[in-house]
Design goal:
heterodimer, A: about 300 residues, alpha+beta, Alpha-Beta Plaits, 2 domains, two-stranded antiparallel ribbon, about 35% helix, B: about 400 residues, mainly alpha, Formate dehydrogenase/DMSO reductase fold, two-stranded antiparallel sheet, 14 helices, about 65% helix, globular
């Protein structure tokens, strides 16, 4: 009966354990997550935005999405209800009332925030989302399986999916014009903005610029640079004349969004010790209960 | 008298009025599925940017995994704890798990937008992703389940291979292969049985981790760092009740006398498991002080209360009573409440608790989504019925039968 003795069993268990431990080191080689000190960002001054929506047109044009004629963007009817980016528009501008000066309402451009610690990147089952040196969070069509877990994870509700396509539906979100910038260009929206509501630069510098603006015009701004600390920092930063919750920004803590989930995940799989320990424990239990059973029958 | 019973293929007509109804429901869902593949997810679902996961996630995906927990719980009970008297329960539970996980894999395949890239997670890894962990674990476990089921297939054909026509000259080779498989599987099965239990604890809990990353988008009643533990405990406590449900249903369907001695004992064993689950659920609520959300009556607080009262407290109270455990209708009702409670919990966790910041309108499943989910359940019942009529899965009492060695650990 005992063709496989206890020593062999232990040997096999150990071999299995080492094999799995080997896998775990590979698994840690996940998607690219660069946090270069020179990563770029954009400072959005919602008090400067005039709501011309030229950035929407420039973005759609640059990304091959249906843009329509530029004149059609003069229609202010769209400001009736707040809009969200979706699979056909990677950025939208909403309007928000300015009580200090009703004639110049605030314009709130919405797009991917390009987090420093993106929840979508942590969540993605195949590592299709990466954080590049230039600050952009980009999506890889060659990897994505369309599971939409990034959409569950994103605290800003940004990624959209092309549900209408039977094949090769894409995750659509602002890519911070990663390719344009690699060729030395500016982000399409920044390039187009006529009033300098969008300032492109090193994120580190932009935080300084933003705080400086608040200091010089405290009556114009609330003392809060949205994105400086939210979910561990974002590449896109915002200045506003009233509380950010009025501008429909989510109220978020300073901890990176994926933090808790990753600690749980790594706790369960700490070098595969817990699973291997459980395996050994169950093996021991199986062996003990078998012998107790056998002894019972012998008597 | 001895209580030995022998697994045999069931007899009787495959088609009954109930079976025909299931076939019709399955065909309707398959038509919707056809539309999904031809025109995309948008054609059959109400999924939006705000609600990227619909009814399929808590039902045929995560719900399927939870309700297939009978596979690993009965294996742990029968093989690891050596409670051999439960042998007649293990095979039906194993078959349910095999079918359950197969359909979970299929459900994932139809739910992802790019189904033809379903194999990507095998080669493109992200160790930080809870979904990656679930995907890999479920894939490995599915293979383990097939291996665990292989002996049933071997038993069916061993010693009676009769290939048709000119293939008949391979009969002896096939027999030799089956004999080798039989020997090899018997010796090594303990490796797979333990692996099955370990893999189950891993992915059952990681399914709970899935929604942790949604952070503030989740209602605090369900958003907790112990979500993985609660998912694991609920899976463990629903395993044996699922075995009870299957056993009572198939006894009914094939006109057999249910093994109430075994089923009542399963009900008794469920009591502490359910109590532990309830304890952690209440404890988590008390420690995080989320009971404040139960003070006002709305859909969320009602659904949470239903989940706890109908899914945990009531069946626990029922199963504590020895008299209720011996009554087939009462035992069935208790088991069904537990299973329903787990399903409701998954619905609540993945759909009700999920409140996106900018939802234009609340998600309700489309007809196509419901039809596909119903069809997948029907197909599992239909295949289950076919398999138990072909393979020796369900046991009948047989006083002359002496079972051969079980899958004991060697040593």
């Amino acid at each position: 009966m005992t063709t496989l003795d206890r020593r062999t069993f232990i040997k096999h268990t150990l071999a299995l354990g080492t094999g799995l431990a080997g896998l775990s080191t590979d698994a840690e080689a996940g998607p690219k997550h660069e946090l270069s000190p020179d990563r770029m960002g954009v400072l959005v001054d919602t008090t400067a935005c005039i709501g011309c929506r030229n950035c929407e047109w420039a973005c759609a044009t640059a990304h091959g999405l249906p843009a329509g004629p530029l004149e059609s963007y003069e229609d202010e009817g769209v400001f009736q209800a707040p809009r969200r980016p979706d699979d056909k528009a990677l950025t939208v501008v909403n309007r928000c009332e300015n009580s200090k000066s009703p004639a110049t309402p605030y314009g709130v451009k919405v797009q991917c925030m390009h987090c420093d610690h993106p929840a979508c990147l942590s969540a993605c089952i195949v590592g299709a989302i990466s954080k590049q040196e230039d600050g952009s969070v980009v999506w890889d069509t060659g990897k994505c399986i369309g599971c939409r877990y990034c959409m569950i994870a994103c605290p800003f509700q940004i990624p959209a999916f092309e549900y209408g396509k039977a094949l090769q539906g894409r995750i659509m979100k602002c890519d911070f014009c990663h390719e344009r910038r690699a060729d030395g260009g500016l982000p399409a929206c920044v390039e187009r903005c006529p009033v300098e509501a969008l300032t492109y630069g090193r994120r580190e510098d932009l935080v300084r610029v933003a705080k400086d603006r608040v200091k010089r015009a405290p009556e114009r701004y609330v003392s809060h640079v949205y994105g400086e600390l939210e979910v561990g920092g974002t590449s896109w930063l915002y200045l506003a004349g009233r509380d950010f919750t009025d501008l429909k920004f989510p109220k978020l803590g300073k901890n990176p969004a994926p933090g808790v989930s990753e600690s749980i995940q790594h706790g369960i799989f700490a070098y595969f010790v817990p699973p291997v320990a459980l395996y050994s424990l169950l093996g021991l239990l199986m062996w003990v209960s078998k012998h107790r059973h056998d002894d019972g029958e012998d008597r | 008298m001895n209580h030995y019973s022998r697994p045999v293929p069931m007899r009787g007509p495959y088609l009954t009025p109930g079976v025909i109804a299931l076939i019709v429901l399955a065909l309707i869902g398959l038509a919707a599925l056809g539309a999904r593949f031809l025109f995309g997810l948008g054609a059959v679902s109400n999924l939006t940017t705000a609600y990227p996961w619909g009814i399929w996630t808590p039902t045929i995906k995560a719900g399927g995994v939870a309700l297939a927990a009978g596979g690993f719980t009965t294996a742990a009970l029968g093989h690891i704890m050596h409670r051999e008297e439960f042998e007649p329960i293990i095979r039906p539970a194993l078959l349910t798990a095999v079918l359950g996980y197969t359909f979970v894999a299929l459900s994932v395949c139809i739910d992802i937008g790019r189904w033809y890239f379903i194999w990507h997670p095998l080669v493109m890894w992200n160790g930080n992703s809870a979904l990656f962990e679930v995907g890999i674990c479920v894939t490995i476990y599915l293979n383990v389940l097939y291996i665990e089921f292989l002996p049933v297939v071997v038993e069916r054909f061993k010693g009676r291979v009769a290939l048709p026509g000119s293939l008949a000259r391979w009969d002896r080779s096939a027999e030799r292969l089956l004999a080798a498989l039989d020997r090899g599987l018997e010796r090594t099965m303990f490796v797979f049985i333990i692996a099955g239990v370990v893999l189950s604890t891993l992915h059952q809990s990681s399914l709970g981790t899935l929604m942790v990353i949604a952070g503030p988008k989740m209602h605090p009643l369900w958003q907790t760092p112990v979500l993985p533990l609660l998912f694991l405990l609920s899976a463990i406590s629903v395993g044996l009740p699922m075995a009870i449900i299957e056993s009572l249903l198939s006894s009914r369907s094939f006109g057999l006398k249910p093994r109430m001695d075994l089923l009542a004992e399963l009900g008794r064993l469920t009591v502490p498991l359910l109590a532990i689950h309830l304890g952690f659920k209440i404890g988590d609520m008390v420690i995080r002080e989320t009971f404040v959300h139960l003070m006002k009556v709305d859909a969320v607080s009602v659904l949470f209360t239903l989940e706890v009262l109908l899914g945990l407290v009531l069946p626990l109270r029922m199963l504590v009573s020895a008299k209720a455990r011996r009554s087939p209708p009462m035992l069935f009702a208790a088991a069904a409440l537990i299973a329903g409670g787990v399903l409701l919990n998954r619905m609540n966790t993945f759909l009700v608790a999920y409140t996106p910041a900018y939802a234009a309108k609340t998600y309700y499943p489309a007809f196509g989504e419901v039809a596909v989910a119903v069809a997948f359940v029907c197909l599992q019942v239909l295949i289950y019925r076919a398999v138990v009529m072909i393979f020796p899965v369900i046991s009948l009492p047989d006083p002359t039968f002496v079972p051969k060695a079980r899958y004991a650990i060697r040593g």
